[in-house]
Amino acid sequence: MILTVTPNPSVDRTLEIDAYVRGAVLRIHTAMAHAGGKGVNVSRALRNHGAQTVAVLPVGGAEGAQLTALLGEHGIAAVTVPVAAVTRCNITTAEADGTTTQLNVAGAALSEAEVAALLRAAESQLRHRPAWLVAGGSLPQGAPADFYVRLSALARRYGVPIAVDTSGAPLVETVRAGAADLLKPNHHELAELLGRELTTLGEVVDATREVLSWGNGAALVTLGDCGALLVEPERVWWAGGPPVVPRSTVGAGDSALAGYLFDDAAPEDRLRRAVAWGSAAVSLPGTTIPGPGDVSDDGVVVVAEPDPSLPVSDLPAKLGSGAARSSA
Ligand SMILES: Nc1ncnc2c1ncn2[C@@H]1O[C@H](COP(=O)(O)OP(=O)(O)OP(=O)(O)O)[C@@H](O)[C@H]1O
Ligand SMILES: O=P(O)(O)OC[C@@]1(O)O[C@H](CO)[C@@H](O)[C@@H]1O
């Protein structure tokens, strides 16, 4: 079983439009709602592929009730912690050319008692010794920036490895405390964390290893349409898939993380699956999370110890060839 904790979940609303025009009246082709939040999406991806998972999350108000109902529709086993604040709705516009714009709400405040209740709910599931704890997303107001560090301490008490996918202050707190066995930043979050531009593959790998040297285990660094890196202290792999016509990129990173964690395969096979699941998510509308029928790892190329001098933006073109495939 894989346990996920999403302190700031959302009802994700997606509006499909031709093109975004500021100040205009825009006609929506399709509007849809999905259960969202990073940990929730990881649970959805795992569940779609038949893996056991439990999602822990706070819910409040009418949107909280809708989120609970959506989780039920997705078949997710959820431990919901009732809170006074109304669960947020995040809005995405998905344009016909594949541009995805996310409007993410801060999320209403949790009280100290509600934060403590969320940690207790997580601990009650950790007693079942899940294979992984996945902690994902931003933190709601009222949750301390070191929330994931506290969660990590709990996970370690039960011998459960923890994967963390967050950004901003909670990411700083987590990595500085060496609290993660696996990190899932994208390269922009990594650049923001270290306060420097990361242009080449070598710069991304060095930056990641700097973060690992603070006591974190390994990192799955996703690179959007340029694939993903799996970085360990001594080894590194890159993987990229064939070009995809994007429909909505929301949930691609979560699907990639779920693909990585799905089972205990060799690192390069986990990375291949991460990229296959992430790429599949991009071609699906809204926060639709792929299942086995959507995913294929045909054409996903994995390269061990890729050339550090390559610009990240050149990776699919330079490494995604048949010639590179043999070096995996
Ligand atoms: N435009 C794209 N075309 C093809 N594959 C993509 C594209 N965007 C993302 N992917 C795939 O999905 C994976 C995760 O994407 P990305 O780096 O955007 O994650 P993220 O920023 O964490 O996303 P999110 O927070 O929305 O879940 C990538 O490693 C890649 O395999
Ligand atoms: O605001 P956060 O917590 O950083 O991100 C929340 C979110 O954008 O992440 C998921 C996609 O990864 C969406 O389902 C959700 O709306």
UniProtKB/TrEMBL annotation:
Reaction(s) catalysed (UniProt annotation): beta-D-fructose 1-phosphate + ATP = beta-D-fructose 1,6-bisphosphate + ADP + H(+)
Task: Name one matching Pfam family.
Answer: PfkB
List the EC numbers from the record.
Answer: 2.7.1.56
* UniProt GO molecular function: 1-phosphofructokinase activity
**Span list, region Disordered:** 305-328
Q: Which Gene3D superfamilies does the UniProt record give?
A: 3.40.1190.20
Checking SUPFAM superfamilies in the record gives: Ribokinase-like
Any idea which UniProt keywords this protein has? ATP-binding, Kinase, Nucleotide-binding, Transferase
Name the residues that span the membrane: none
Recorded family membership: Belongs to the carbohydrate kinase PfkB family.
Function (record text) = Catalyzes the ATP-dependent phosphorylation of fructose-l-phosphate to fructose-l,6-bisphosphate.
Q: What is this protein called?
A: 1-phosphofructokinase
The organism encoding this protein is Thermobifida alba (Thermomonospora alba)
Identify the coding gene: pfkB
